[in-house]
Amino acid sequence: MNNELSKSERTRRFILEKTADIFNTKGYAGTSLADLTEATGLTKGSIYGNFANKEDVALAAFDHNLSVVIQAVQERMQQAPTYYQKLFVYSQFYYDSIRTSFPVGGCPILNTAIEADDTNSLLKNRAAKAILSWKKNIVDLIKAGVASGEFRTDVDPDQTALSIIALIEGGIMIARVTNSLTSLDKVLKTVEMLLVQLKV
């Protein structure tokens, strides 16, 4: 079976790899066609021959950036032996990522959610879907931890999951706006305290 990508698929991947950081840094509104052609070295026709329009590229770029984050988190999580440590991976990842500028431009969920708001329903829906998927992953980990006897049985998985996400994303936003990593560190300490309270 031939698993090689077609020329069109290779071109799409190339465009995404060259433009994903730009969209994540400058946002949809701030990214121009000139940015895309300069980054890729391709013409407008070549780009729009592979994507319907700039919004289509932006949506694919969001998916690309999100997949990079998810893969990095999953790789760390696979090394964590307990459910507490698996949940703590989220805190560790964002602690490290904001210091190493990974991915470039910061958290794609936060960036897209803030920019899209009510001005771009497709990007807003993409960010919402990502948050709900993240919430489900956390809820599943908490429920597995409860079932294994690692976490308390009176834990509210939904409330805890939403609190973890809100703290992490809120902490990133505060740190970026105030240029203070100390703010994020303090918020992530609160996440850690929340996780400790899950234990039996």
Task: Tell me about this structure.
Keywords: DNA-binding, Transcription, Transcription regulation. This is Transcriptional regulator, TetR family. The chain has 200 residues and is mainly alpha-helical. It has a domain of 136 residues: Tetracycline Repressor, domain 2 (Orthogonal Bundle), CATH 1.10.357.10. The protein is 77% helix and 0% strand. It contains nine helices and no strands. The longest helix is centred in the C-terminal third of the chain and has 27 residues. It is elongated. The model has no long low-confidence stretch (mean pLDDT 94).
Give a quick summary of the entry.
One of its GO terms (molecular function) is DNA binding. By secondary structure, the protein is mainly alpha-helical. The chain contains nine helices and no strands.
Question: Which residue ranges are poorly predicted, with pLDDT under 50 across at least 5 consecutive positions?
Answer: none
Q: Structural class from helices and strands? A: mainly alpha
Give the CATH superfamily of the domain at 61-196: Tetracycline Repressor, domain 2
What proportion of the residues is helical, as a percent range? Answer: over 70%
Number of helices: 9
* Main sheet makeup: none
Q: Regarding quaternary structure, how should these chains be classified? A: single chain
H/E element string? HHHHHHHHH
In percent terms, what proportion of residues is strand?
under 5%
Radius of gyration: 19 Å
Please identify the top-level CATH class of the domain at 61-196. Answer: Mainly Alpha
Quote the CATH topology of the domain at 61-196.
Tetracycline Repressor, domain 2
